[in-house]
Amino acid sequence: MSETASECGGIRVARLADVQPGEMTTVEVEGVKVLLANVGGTLRALRDSCSHEEAPLSEGELEGETVVCPWHYSSFCLRTGEALEPPAVDPAEAYVVHVADGEVFLSRQ
């Protein structure tokens, strides 16, 4: 049984069909640009800003469960936001993703 929108909470940002496996897009949550990535059918979301120099992560490369910054090649875990490669040392803010009835909702962790 799938969650309903009222059960999952969060802010509706997209339809599941909008982000195909292996693709990334950006959405807005409360005035903040957020990277939404489909990793093998599972959606992940991080603030679309590298913690090193605020590069747009959405312009980087999706590599499995990580995203690589386009400016200085730091990488971040899409599940947790953890910085995996320097020069970034601070995490990117991760969001909780809920899918209900084909709609994607995000909330802060």
From TrEMBL:
Pfam family membership, one: Rieske
Matching InterPro entries: Rieske_2Fe-2S, Rieske_2Fe-2S_sf
Key word Glycoprotein present: no
Coiled-coil regions, chain positions: none
Record-annotated Rieske domain positions: 11-106
Keyword list, A-Z: 2Fe-2S, Iron, Iron-sulfur, Metal-binding
Name this polypeptide is given: Non-heme iron oxygenase ferredoxin subunit
Taxonomic lineage from the root: Bacteria, Bacillati, Actinomycetota, Actinomycetes, Kitasatosporales
